[in-house]
TrEMBL record:
PANTHER family: GNTR-FAMILY TRANSCRIPTIONAL REGULATOR, TRANSCRIPTIONAL REGULATOR, GNTR FAMILY. The keyword Transcription applies. This is FCD domain-containing protein. The keyword DNA-binding applies. InterPro entries: GntR_C, TF_FadR/GntR_C, Tscrpt_reg_HTH_GntR, WH-like_DNA-bd_sf, WH_DNA-bd_sf. PROSITE patterns: HTH_GNTR. Residues 11-81 form the HTH gntR-type domain. Keywords: DNA-binding, Transcription, Transcription regulation.
Length: 255
């Protein structure tokens, strides 16, 4: 166990073990679906007690690195982490800063136009095709609230990941995982859905041309239009403080 001068707390042994497990996963070339060694072998390998090992495994489960399956044939199985742990951390940080919902809208306005610019020059034909399919599906099922929410999220995620920058992808994933505007009283009526669809088509058209300037401008217009709509119709929602429990209400951030 490592210690630090100046009275800082020693690093928890379980966290050190968790890091060692992740390093060994990488070193051994293990991937999603592979199982870790039996508990007895891991206790010997890491030189810790059963309680410490289980705490380390539980920590990795909470980070979506592992799933712990009980019973015969079970044990720690490797999973692919997603953005949910980042979203939870962001929610907690924002709650303790008493940050309002407007924080998310403002952040999107600063980031997503840049992502559209980068995507225009980087995204693959396959990514463009998937984005076009998402827009078409939104158009066909515009009266279906669930499909509208799903395809809206697909579109913004698609642009973020098309930058080929994983940090941007996870960041947008996390922001989209935080909220469903309906949780804070926002209603997306037919007129608003039509406006979102029209904006997505403008952005898609610019991306298909691989026009960085036009893609950035179209995304900026889209996010600014959303911010104006929220300020006009739902100022109380924008002012509402962010709380951790919002992330547990099956939400998506709309734009």
């Amino acid at each position: 166990m490592t210690s630090h001068r100046g009275g800082a707390r020693s690093e928890k042994v379980a966290l050190i073990v968790a890091r060692g497990i992740v390093q060994d996963i990488d070193r051994r070339g293990l991937t999603v679906g592979d199982r870790l060694p039996a508990e007895r072998a891991m206790l010997e390998a890491y030189g810790v007690g059963r309680g410490t090992l289980r705490e380390a495994l539980r920590f990795l489960e909470l980070q979506n690195v592992l799933s712990l399956k009980p019973g015969p044939g079970g044990g720690p199985t490797i999973e692919k982490p997603d953005s949910s742990a980042l979203a939870n951390a962001m929610l907690l940080l924002l709650q303790f800063e008493n940050a309002p919902f407007a924080t998310v809208a403002e952040t999107r306005g600063g980031i997503e136009p840049l992502l559209a610019r980068l995507a225009a020059s980087r995204m693959s034909d396959e990514s463009l095709s998937a984005l076009a399919e998402s827009v078409d599906r939104m158009a066909v099922h515009l009266d279906d609230r669930a499909v509208f929410l799903e395809t809206n999220k697909e579109f913004h995620n698609g642009v973020a990941w098309a930058t080929e920058n994983a940090l941007f992808g996870f960041l947008i994933n996390a922001m989209l995982d935080i909220f469903d505007g309906t949780v804070v009283g926002v209603d997306y009526n037919e007129r608003r859905r039509q406006a979102v669809l029209k904006a997505h088509r403008r952005i898609l058209d610019a991306l298909l041309l691989r026009d960085s300037d036009a893609s950035e401008a179209a995304m900026a217009e889209h996010i600014e239009e959303y911010a104006r709509y929220m300020a006009r119709k739902y100022p109380e929602a924008l002012a509402r403080p962010i709380t951790w429990d919002i992330g547990w209400r099956n939400g998506q951030l709309l734009g």
